[in-house]
Amino acid sequence: MNYEELMEKAIEVSKNAYAPYSKFAVGACVLTESGKIYTGCNFENSSYGMAICAERNAIGSAIADGENKIKAVAIYSPNQDNCTPCGACRQVLHEFCENDELDVIVKVGSDIKVYKLSYLLPESFSL
Ligand code: THU
Q1: Interval between CA 120 and ligand 1 midpoint (Å)
Q2: Which residues pair with 74 in a beta bridge?
Q3: DSSP letter for each residue of 54-119
Q4: 24-82: per-residue pLDDT in tens?
């Protein structure tokens, strides 16, 4: 699956976001090293701090299916161009990739832009 197709999946799943509080919908689609894909959207709660980001929702599905090596993630929000992952999601992505080589794909106008996780999360923390 190419990165344009990955973005299409992220766009599609963003339509299922449950975001009645922030009204900020997000969809994510992760591509694993073995070529499988998993989608996720954000879902919020009246107890605001319990919101789950789209990226972590998608990563959770990959993990549950036994896939823990992520190669790329496409992220889309209809509310914002260049919707890069929040700090918490950057750290979670770091956990499941090799040397922060993971590609983070976002939409800017009608184009896609690709960042390396190493650019978005410099000097990352590991144990
Ligand atoms: N959100 C994501 O889903 N991913 C991010 O990387 C940034 C934030 C969600 C969380 C919350 O539901 C809404 O966007 C506003 O913060």
Answers
A1: 16
A2: 29, 105
A3: HHHHHHHHHHHTT---EEEEEEEBTTBSS-PPPHHHHHHHHHTSSTT--EEEEEETTEEEEEEHHH
A4: 999 999 999 999 999 999 999 999 999 999 999 999 999 999 999 999 999 999 999 99
DSSP letter, residue 52 = B
Q: Is the CB of 26 under 6 A from ligand 1?
A: yes
Percent of the chain with pLDDT over 70: 100
Compare 1 and 71 and report the one with higher pLDDT: 71
The residue count of the chain comes to 127
Query: What residues have CB less than 8 Å from 118, skipping those under 6 apart?
Result: 99, 100, 101, 124
- By most ligand atoms within 8 Å of CB, the mutation choice from 22, 29, 80, 82 for ligand 1 is 22
Asked if residues 30 and 62 have their Cβ atoms less than 8 Å apart, the reply is yes
pLDDT of 1 above 90: no
Question: Catalytic residue positions?
Answer: 55
In order of their start, the domains of the chain are 3-120 (3.40.140.10)
